[in-house]
Amino acid sequence: MKKLSIVVPCYNEQEAAPIFYDTVHGMEDKLSSVELEFIFVDDGSKDGTLDVLRGLHAKDERVHYVSFSRNFGKEAGIYAGLEKSTGDYVVIMDVDLQDPPAMLPEMLSYIESGEYERVATRRVDRKGEPPIRSWFARKFYKLMNKISSADIVDGARDYQMMTRKVVDAILAMGEYNRFSKGIFGWVGFKSKWLEFENVERVAGETKWSFWKLFIYAIDGIVAFSTAPLIMASVFGVIMCLVAFIFILVIIVKTLILGDPTSGWPSMVCIILLVSGIQLLCMGVLGQYMAKTYLETKKRPIYLVQEEE
Ligand code: UDP
Ligand code: MG
What we know:
GO terms for molecular function: transferase activity. It is built from ten helices and eight strands. By secondary structure, it is of the alpha/beta class. Strand 1 (2-10), helix 1 (16-26) and strand 2 (34-42) form a beta-alpha-beta unit. 28% of the residues are buried.
């Protein structure tokens, strides 16, 4: 019998975790073709999440957990969960039931057919989300697909089932800056996409502020595209051309009109503009350098405090 591992990253989810377990447990008869394994990852929660997980482990020996020494982020949680999983198939799920467990049997049937290595899901709408956030998200996916070689699907969730082959490919990407959406797109493999409508979380609250999402988007771009660096060079070339034309104009004008020195305001504007662009490009460069710096340190992606 094949085994299906369910990887669930949790951060301050003491209310949601038991509901999640009960819900999946309640539909096990529909997943009878596989043996189940639960891998909960406690991402340094400050509430009683770890106690809840200990309780679930005591009740059901198929429940395992990894508890981090501090909050390392969902990406690290997914990595740890995949590392600990032993199943032939693995599915990644949010604990807040925003990834409908009702889709599991369908996903499993696609994987079991052997035709697909990965069954991924995407949300077709963003109901219950602030409109401004949806707008930024859509723009982000558009931009990302233009400038990156990784295929990043709009509304793609981390909710996906995959075979061991894909899990191994993802684990082989040991980079420190983990942008999952990019990583899954980058490894490729034959994927089936399923769609579902947005579901509101069952308990607790979202861990993502607008600002956190914005930083996440920047991280994603830096991790999966070097287009901003090219843009910086293009900026430089354009500025040089403009300067060259200016020089010619000024020489000609001086020769013809004998123009005395003037133009203090325009000079200030030019200096401000050019130094602004320089700082911007340095900032872009700095982003890449910072990521390279962190990457070269080869720090572990997460640290475990307790596991079972
Ligand atoms: N999560 C995590 N570490 C974090 C933030 C979130 O493991 O630092 C988990 C969280 O417990 C949940 C999932 O990632 O299972 C998705 O988080 P959330 O529901 O807050 O995000 P949203 O659905 O609002 O995008
Ligand atoms: Mg959620």
